[in-house]
Task: structure prediction
Amino acid sequence: MINFDEGIEFDPGFTIHLSLISRDIESFYYNLSAYPKFPQKKQQFKAYSSKLLRLVERNIGFYAACVLWADIAKNYPDKLILNNICFGGEYDEAENVQEVEFVRNYIEQFKKDLKYYVGQDFEIPELYRVILDDYEAFLKINEGFIAISKAGDLKLPDGVKSVENEAELLGKIETVIESGNFKPMIEYYSKVK
Result:
């Protein structure tokens, strides 16, 4: 059970369920390029397209979870942020938002590839775009979290409202930490917009 007696963990257990999306996707395309003929590439892309989309959704769900976690933390402004691995580092904005930009750009590539290889159209849900924009803003306004020592130091992106039912969200966060399924965070995010 999550509690804030000692302070608020910088990462409540989200990152153990992630891998570097850029590496995963680049690896897939490297393997895809090994197939010499279009029908083979088409078959491989079709077989893996749902997995590629889940990778994107996992990251977008992680981004939503991070903003939602900070939204809860803001309710405890005097609590220390524990185990902030970014604290005291140097801020490099381009490096800080690199993965978010990768995801945003890959979504456009995925749409094209899905049409090319499978003949299907794909439109990203608007909420996904909102989460990408908000998370990028979140990273920038907090300058990579290098100076965040207390929950009150955290800043939320414009337009993100306070969580109304903290207990409900904490329950969902605990489920995410146990399962590694970030999809509920995407769905919950609409409640703070």
